[in-house]
Structure formats: C-alpha cells, structure tokens
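Cross-check.
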Amino acid sequence: MASLRSVVRKKRNGPVKIVIAGVTGWVGQAIFREAIKTPGVEVVAGVSRSRAGEDMGTALGLPATGIAIVGTLDEALNLPSDVVIDYTNTEGVRTHAPAVIRAGRALVIGTSGLDEVELQALDALARQHGVGVVAAGNFSISGTLLKRFALEAARYLADVEVVEYASARKQDVPTGTGRELAEALSALRQAPTTIPLEKLKGLVGSRGVPIGSGSHAVQLHSVYLPSYVLAVESIHATESERLVIRHEAGSSAQPYVAGTLLAARAALTLKGLLRGLESLI
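Predicted model, tokenized:
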C-alpha cells in the first residue's frame, strides 16, 4: 500500500482536494475526521441537505474549520476540487456519479446498490471524459482480503455460495460487499456439482438468489437482523470438507476510511472504472 501511495503522490503537485457527499453520514463523518489530519489531502466541501450552510467542523462536533457544508452536489462542483467521495445512497449516487464524471472530477463510490450494468455504463462515461472512478462494495482491508482469499479458493473448490448479514434497518439488498463478491466468484468459479435451480422442487427461492456475470452464477443468501452491522461468508466445499472465509465489521466506520482515501488518490491516476480495492493493496 505504501508503494502505491508514493506513486500517486509523485503524479501531482499540491494536496488532493476532495468533496465528501454524505459527509454527515456514518462513514462520511469518519472520512472527514481522518482527512483533515492527513498530509496531502484537503477537504474543500461536504454535501448534506440537512446541515447545509453550517461549518463542517462544528456540525460534526469539532472546532470550526472554515469548510462549508453545501446542500447540493452542484454547489460543491462549483468549487475547485479533484475527487468526489460519495457515501450517500443508491438513488443519490445514480444522480451524482454521471454529474461528477462530466464535470471532469475523479470519483470514489462507497455507496452500495449499483448493479453491473450501471457500473459498466459509468466505466464507459469515465473513459469518454478521461477520468478515474473507483467503486467497491467494501473499502475495509479485511473485507478486501476476504474477496482475494475467496477468489483463490474458488480456483480449487468447485462449489461456493455467499451468505451475508446486515442491519435490520438497511434498505438496499443485497449489500455491496455480498453482490461484488458473488459477481467476482461467478466470473472464475468451476462448474458446480449441486442440483441446478431449474431441477429443484418446492420453494426454490429458499436457495437464495443467483448472482453473477460468469457462466456459473453464485447463490447469495441475505440475512438482515438487529445486532448486525455487516458480515459476509464465502463458503467453499468439495467432497467431505468445507472452507469458510468470513469478514465481520464492527460498529465503527473507521475500517473503511484508509481504503477510501487510498482510492481517492488512486482514482486520479486512472481512466475508467476500477471495481474493488484488491488491486490497490
């Protein structure tokens, strides 16, 4: 990770100027708190309709910073900036992402809910405008390693399914972490040995939802209950043995911060959309 950061820093003079959309949210607040003390990063604006007009520091329980919260992304894009970090919601990022790209800014998408077709369209738009986008279902290091290890396991064990756990209050289903993992596994997994869905009898929906762009979809099972923040299991099996790889998030947003800021720097060196954080660590 250190080597990538040094490469990114050599490619530009001055700090990376960032806008945080969703700055008063769970992850947005944590990113702001870290960014204002990180060398080489400058926060120029935050976007929050509910706190528009306030100083970003005092709005988040810190000393005044002189950095304003604005009510819309358009207002933020009127300020000089390099990268927009979006942690809003699915509908928000659907509107924000094309606007950011057309404005010539790099983009980091931390919001879940965009499907493969939408991400491909953003990739094409980003290439057209010559800007970089990094989109990941999970910007934490352990979440990224889960994906890396699971992809390696899928090369050797034919059968794999994904089980995800999230808060009972989460509206988007599946989670970005679970969807991204299942899609990546489907692209390289071997042919399953389980009975195909079309040959099952009874309540077939209990076998989960098939996810993936590869030749062999991966079944994804979602459990949304109180007490969970996020957990994802990649379950691999063959005759008489199983391998379970699990990532579990705690109640703090801090694990997502370092990966997001790394992605913000990396996005400045890209053209088009990079999916996932694993190639950056």
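The radius of gyration is 20 Å. The chain has nine helices and twelve strands. Passed to J.P. for a second look.
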